[in-house]
Amino acid sequence: MFSHVNKKQSIxxxxxxxxxxxxxxxxxxxxxxxxxxxxxxAVVDHYASAIHQGQRVDQITRSLYLSAITLLSVGFGDxxxxxxxRGAAIIQALIGYLLPAVIVIQFISPYNNGTNQLKRKFHDSxxx
Length: 128
Known about the structure:
By secondary structure, the chain is mostly helical. It has a single domain (2-126), classed as Orthogonal Bundle (Helix Hairpins), CATH 1.10.287. It has helices spanning 2-37, 50-53, 56-71, 84-108, 111-126; strands at 43-45, 79-81. A two-stranded antiparallel ribbon has the order 1-2. Helix 1 (2-37) packs antiparallel against helix 4. The longest helix has 36 residues, at 2-37. The protein is elongated and about 70 Å long.
């Protein structure tokens, strides 16, 4: 039964982290789109024509793509942020570097569940 509980907790934690990654990805996509729309930070695709880059659908897909490759620390170099989008990309890259460490600590750390269980046992044994 203990392994069943741990499996449920692991699946729960994994789903939370996947939702967190998705949230960060989409939030920064919106940030890149807004900065591009108000001309504070363009996102440029170096392999697309000027006509193609002027389309709103391409702006959204470029922002989605830039956000994904920045968060996952891939950085192919075919899409480049300029202006304030560079600052947003730096913040997103830092989040992308730190989040895996948090995930590893949450999954690997034996003290998260064990310490709480030991505290409960100690507290229960003291109460008459």
